[in-house]
Predict the structure of WRKY domain-containing protein.
Amino acid sequence: MHCRLPPLELQQFRWRNSSSSGCGEKGKVKVRRKLREPRFCFQTRSEVDVLDDGYKWRKYGQKVVKNSLHPRSYYRCTHSNCRVKKRVERLSEDCRMVITTYEGRHNHTPSEDSNSSEHECFSSF
DNA sequence: CGAGTTTGACCTGCGC
DNA sequence: GCGCAGGTCAAACTCG
Protein backbone atom coordinates (compact mmCIF):
# COMPACT_ATOMS: atom_id res chain seq x y z
CA MET A 1 0.00 0.00 0.00
CA HIS A 2 1.98 2.95 -1.15
CA CYS A 3 -0.86 5.37 -0.66
CA ARG A 4 0.28 6.98 2.52
CA LEU A 5 0.01 10.72 2.49
CA PRO A 6 3.24 12.43 3.45
CA PRO A 7 3.19 15.59 5.57
CA LEU A 8 3.28 17.56 2.33
CA GLU A 9 -0.35 18.51 2.76
CA LEU A 10 0.71 20.81 5.54
CA GLN A 11 2.21 23.08 2.97
CA GLN A 12 0.08 25.82 1.58
CA PHE A 13 -0.03 26.93 -1.98
CA ARG A 14 0.55 30.50 -2.83
CA TRP A 15 0.78 32.19 -6.18
CA ARG A 16 3.28 34.86 -6.95
CA ASN A 17 1.47 38.06 -7.85
CA SER A 18 3.13 39.76 -10.76
CA SER A 19 3.84 42.87 -8.74
CA SER A 20 7.15 43.51 -10.45
CA SER A 21 8.27 46.97 -9.50
CA GLY A 22 8.82 49.11 -12.54
CA CYS A 23 6.43 47.07 -14.63
CA GLY A 24 3.35 49.21 -14.08
CA GLU A 25 2.01 47.75 -17.30
CA LYS A 26 1.36 44.54 -15.46
CA GLY A 27 -1.77 45.68 -13.68
CA LYS A 28 -2.55 42.06 -12.91
CA VAL A 29 -1.74 42.44 -9.27
CA LYS A 30 -4.67 40.26 -8.34
CA VAL A 31 -3.51 37.14 -6.66
CA ARG A 32 -3.86 34.07 -8.80
CA ARG A 33 -6.20 32.43 -6.33
CA LYS A 34 -5.07 30.52 -3.30
CA LEU A 35 -5.25 27.40 -5.44
CA ARG A 36 -8.10 25.25 -4.21
CA GLU A 37 -7.48 22.38 -6.63
CA PRO A 38 -7.35 18.84 -5.34
CA ARG A 39 -4.05 17.15 -4.78
CA PHE A 40 -3.06 13.56 -5.24
CA CYS A 41 -0.07 12.20 -3.45
CA PHE A 42 1.54 9.03 -4.67
CA GLN A 43 4.43 7.15 -3.29
CA THR A 44 6.13 4.97 -5.85
CA ARG A 45 9.30 2.98 -5.79
CA SER A 46 11.09 3.58 -9.03
CA GLU A 47 14.60 4.23 -10.31
CA VAL A 48 13.38 7.09 -12.45
CA ASP A 49 12.18 10.39 -11.08
CA VAL A 50 9.45 10.95 -13.63
CA LEU A 51 6.93 8.25 -14.26
CA ASP A 52 5.54 8.21 -17.77
CA ASP A 53 1.83 8.42 -17.02
CA GLY A 54 0.96 9.24 -20.60
CA TYR A 55 1.24 12.99 -20.18
CA LYS A 56 4.03 15.27 -21.20
CA TRP A 57 5.74 17.12 -18.38
CA ARG A 58 8.10 20.04 -18.50
CA LYS A 59 10.42 20.72 -15.62
CA TYR A 60 10.15 24.31 -14.44
CA GLY A 61 12.13 24.25 -11.26
CA GLN A 62 14.17 22.32 -8.79
CA LYS A 63 14.78 23.03 -5.13
CA VAL A 64 16.45 21.30 -2.26
CA VAL A 65 14.27 20.83 0.77
CA LYS A 66 15.47 20.23 4.28
CA ASN A 67 13.08 17.35 4.77
CA SER A 68 14.89 15.48 2.05
CA LEU A 69 18.52 15.15 1.27
CA HIS A 70 17.63 15.09 -2.39
CA PRO A 71 16.39 17.95 -4.53
CA ARG A 72 12.71 18.22 -5.35
CA SER A 73 11.70 18.62 -8.96
CA TYR A 74 8.71 20.59 -10.20
CA TYR A 75 7.00 19.61 -13.40
CA ARG A 76 4.17 21.19 -15.34
CA CYS A 77 1.88 19.81 -18.01
CA THR A 78 2.99 21.02 -21.42
CA HIS A 79 -0.59 21.43 -22.54
CA SER A 80 -1.60 25.06 -22.79
CA ASN A 81 -5.09 24.30 -21.59
CA CYS A 82 -3.88 22.12 -18.79
CA ARG A 83 -2.31 23.74 -15.78
CA VAL A 84 -1.69 20.55 -13.89
CA LYS A 85 1.49 20.50 -11.89
CA LYS A 86 3.52 17.60 -10.61
CA ARG A 87 5.98 17.54 -7.76
CA VAL A 88 8.57 14.80 -7.59
CA GLU A 89 10.44 14.26 -4.36
CA ARG A 90 12.88 11.53 -3.48
CA LEU A 91 12.95 10.00 -0.04
CA SER A 92 16.20 10.47 1.81
CA GLU A 93 15.83 7.11 3.50
CA ASP A 94 15.11 5.36 0.24
CA CYS A 95 16.65 6.93 -2.83
CA ARG A 96 14.68 4.43 -4.85
CA MET A 97 11.42 5.74 -3.46
CA VAL A 98 9.93 8.80 -5.06
CA ILE A 99 6.86 10.74 -4.01
CA THR A 100 4.88 12.10 -6.90
CA THR A 101 2.34 14.74 -6.00
CA TYR A 102 -0.16 15.69 -8.68
CA GLU A 103 -1.80 19.08 -8.41
CA GLY A 104 -5.00 19.72 -10.33
CA ARG A 105 -6.75 17.63 -12.88
CA HIS A 106 -5.99 17.00 -16.54
CA ASN A 107 -8.78 18.37 -18.68
CA HIS A 108 -7.48 16.55 -21.72
CA THR A 109 -6.49 13.10 -22.79
CA PRO A 110 -2.91 11.87 -22.48
CA SER A 111 -0.42 12.44 -25.26
CA GLU A 112 -1.05 8.90 -26.36
CA ASP A 113 -4.65 9.78 -27.11
CA SER A 114 -5.08 6.10 -27.79
CA ASN A 115 -8.16 6.08 -25.63
CA SER A 116 -9.67 8.12 -22.90
CA SER A 117 -7.94 6.22 -20.16
CA GLU A 118 -9.99 7.32 -17.24
CA HIS A 119 -7.31 6.33 -14.84
CA GLU A 120 -8.61 8.96 -12.49
CA CYS A 121 -9.00 6.41 -9.78
CA PHE A 122 -7.07 8.86 -7.69
CA SER A 123 -8.68 9.44 -4.37
CA SER A 124 -10.75 12.52 -5.01
CA PHE A 125 -9.78 15.00 -2.41
C1' DC B 1 14.71 26.54 -35.03
C1' DG B 2 11.92 24.93 -31.21
C1' DA B 3 10.90 22.59 -27.11
C1' DG B 4 12.73 21.24 -23.07
C1' DT B 5 16.18 21.50 -19.36
C1' DT B 6 19.11 23.99 -16.07
C1' DT B 7 20.31 27.32 -12.56
C1' DG B 8 19.86 31.50 -10.04
C1' DA B 9 17.18 35.14 -8.38
C1' DC B 10 13.04 36.74 -6.29
C1' DC B 11 8.81 36.53 -3.67
C1' DT B 12 5.66 35.06 -0.12
C1' DG B 13 4.07 32.73 4.10
C1' DC B 14 5.07 31.17 8.62
C1' DG B 15 7.71 30.71 12.83
C1' DC B 16 10.24 32.72 16.36
C1' DG C 1 10.01 42.52 12.47
C1' DC C 2 13.39 39.36 10.66
C1' DG C 3 14.92 35.04 9.00
C1' DC C 4 14.10 30.65 6.92
C1' DA C 5 12.04 27.49 3.82
C1' DG C 6 9.51 26.55 -0.12
C1' DG C 7 7.80 27.68 -4.73
C1' DT C 8 7.87 29.96 -9.31
C1' DC C 9 9.70 32.41 -13.23
C1' DA C 10 12.89 33.86 -16.55
C1' DA C 11 17.13 33.81 -19.32
C1' DA C 12 20.56 30.91 -21.29
C1' DC C 13 21.97 26.57 -23.01
C1' DT C 14 21.43 21.97 -25.12
C1' DC C 15 19.52 18.43 -27.90
C1' DG C 16 16.51 16.70 -31.61
